[in-house]
Amino acid sequence: MGLRLLPVNYSNCLFVTVNDEGFRLAVLFVFRFLSPPLFIPWARVESVAEKRFLFMRYASVRIRESWPRLSFYGKAGKGILEVYARASNKRAL
């Protein structure tokens, strides 16, 4: 997110909630003024791929009709990969 040459890193200020309908992004309440929570349904997600940088694995999420790629590390990335795979299998049936 952010400009192509100046990406934004939310570090530990971003809360990610993942469920069967999609995932929700919310910024820490101190910084939430003018940044309401955002819900992205799986239908809007073009792809989720597991990537690797050195020894770290992360989930790379591409949103349809949008250029920024979102990267999620740790538990958030693992959760997005697992639930997206499940949601994709349900849609394929």
The number of helical runs is 1
Average pLDDT, all residues? 84
Sheet with the most strands? Answer: 3 strands, antiparallel
Q: What overall geometry do the principal axes of the alpha carbons give?
A: globular
What is this structure, in a nutshell?
With 93 residues, the chain is of the alpha+beta class.
Topology:
Elements: E1 14-19, E2 22-27, E3 38-41, E4 45-53, E5 56-63, E6 69-73, H1 74-92
Antiparallel strand pairs: 1-2, 2-3, 4-5, 5-6
Structure description:
With 93 residues, the chain is α+β, with helices and mostly antiparallel strands. It has one domain: Pleckstrin-homology domain (PH domain)/Phosphotyrosine-binding domain (PTB) (PH-domain like). 20% of the residues lie in helices and 41% in strands. It is built from one helix and six strands. The strands form two sheets. The chain has a three-stranded antiparallel β-sheet, with helices on one face. Strands 4-5-6 form a three-stranded antiparallel β-sheet, covered by helices on one side. The radius of gyration is 13 Å and the shape is globular.
List keywords for this structure.
single chain, 41% strand, alpha+beta, 6 strands
